[in-house]
């Protein structure tokens, strides 16, 4: 199993920054079998730059659940799965930080679609999600929002799997 994830946040991984939105798609290697998406109340200010980038503002998250209210769903969705994201260190470390603040250690194998794309599709002009999706003709709706970016990453992941001639991506049978 794979868990394809994207988060939007109030800033960088270091320090008190929090997640404002999370989208997760559980994938069995052939298709999406489960999905979870929600805005999150970060209980801290969302900087103007982030509001402008994501479109997520204080009013949108005021009545949203806090991370601790959805932590069980994050754990369930990613249990027994490889954690997949575009620039996986960012998304994984944010989820890990939020769970560790709740005294729940978080260990998952990870797969970065940026690094994997560079190996499977060498020579493209850019490996940023937007430009990579453009190069590969993958639709990317609602850019810089967790659901839109994660949905595009699902399609990118499927394209990577279909073109993985050197077994760079562990297959479900090898996950045991």
UniProtKB/TrEMBL annotation:
Keyword Lipid metabolism: no
Pfam families in the cross-refs: RNase_T
Listed SMART domains: EXOIII
GO biological process: DNA replication proofreading
Keyword Kinase: no
Keywords: Exonuclease, Hydrolase, Nuclease
Molecular function as annotated in GO: 3'-5' exonuclease activity; DNA binding; DNA-directed DNA polymerase activity
Residue ranges annotated for the Exonuclease domain, each copy included: 1-166
Transmembrane segments: none
CC terms in the record's Gene Ontology section: cytosol
Entry-linked InterPro entries: DnaQ, Ribonucl_H, RNaseH-like_sf, RNaseH_sf
Subunit structure: DNA polymerase III contains a core (composed of alpha, epsilon and theta chains) that associates with a tau subunit. This core dimerizes to form the POLIII' complex. PolIII' associates with the gamma complex (composed of gamma, delta, delta', psi and chi chains) and with the beta chain to form the complete DNA polymerase III complex.
Function: DNA polymerase III is a complex, multichain enzyme responsible for most of the replicative synthesis in bacteria. The epsilon subunit contain the editing function and is a proofreading 3'-5' exonuclease.
Protein name (Swiss-Prot/TrEMBL): 3'-5' exonuclease
